[in-house]
Amino acid sequence: MTDNYQVRPALAYDRQEIANLMFFEQHVHRHLDWKHPVDWLGSPFYWVLERNAKIMAVLACPQDQKGTTWVRLFTHVERFSAEEAWQILWENAKLDLEQSGKITVSAITLQHWMQTLLQQSGFVNEEQILMMSWEEEERPKWNLPKGIAIRTMNEADLPRVAGVDAEAFLPLWRNPLSMLKQAYGQAVIASVAETREGIVGYQISTHSPFGAHLARLAVQPEMQRRGIASALIGDLINELLAKDISQLSVNTQSKNERSIALYAKNGFKRTEEEYPLYSFQIGKETS
């Protein structure tokens, strides 16, 4: 590049410098993830923009699912404009990402400066991520479906839980086993619903500043509409109340009417908090 700038893959020895940028710089977009951005170092689609061997900006879009990825990190030093840093790194990213075939790059952000960069680059705001909240006075009514048992999740369940997750979610929203292991490690309450044949649903909830957050809820498609999701929520709320936790939040997509209806039926109410989801399509299908 000109002016002594170059774009290169981020490497393990960049860890501290990237961490410093995230801590000290004003403009930091970080995807809400189970995995810290520096823990993705060594993965493809993670770049730094440097000048005279000093990192000026970082863009990370490493994949955990084929055909889709997130803008997991973008930050830059203050003396380098956000527009210029993004343009250089994003143009380089598109060229690299195209080599993997068709891929959707998505981002969720409330930061106006980041929204502007995404919009100027052709990202489309297709839907919103909604926040819903349950509070103790709205305790849901639920029954345990016939043939279903709910119990505490253990680490040995995670491979089967990952299978349920893959069946229940579209690729953008799936969590592979590696991510579910990290989610499980951060859980305040994690439980599974099972039949004699095995696990058919699960939930993982974490601590939040106001109580708890229902981070993952999934039921096998062929077992849906039987009250299993409501039973998992009801059992979760009972467990939370036993821990003196009286507020539970959850996120869902504005276009997911079934999900919104499920949570509303169980006493959740929409808050004013919502987050725009931006997406950009790259490349073509590979043969």
Global mean pLDDT: 94
CATH topology of the largest domain: Aminopeptidase
- Helix content class: 25-40%
> What class would the helix/strand composition place it in?
alpha+beta
In CATH, the homologous superfamily of the largest domain goes by the name Gcn5-related N-acetyltransferase (GNAT)
List unreliable stretches of 5+ residues: none
Helix-strand sequence: EHEEEEEHEHEEHHEEEHEHE
* DSSP strand tally: 14
Number of domains: 2
What is the CATH C-level name of the largest domain? Alpha Beta
Major sheet size, sense and barrel closure = 9 strands, mixed
Just name the CATH architecture of the largest domain: 3-Layer(aba) Sandwich
Q: Globular, elongated, flat, extended or rod-shaped: what is the shape?
A: elongated
Distance between the termini: 33 Å
- Tally of individual helices: 7
Percentage of residues in DSSP E strands: 25-35%
Strand order of the largest sheet: 5-7-14-8-13-12-11-10-9
**Rg (CA only):** 21 Å
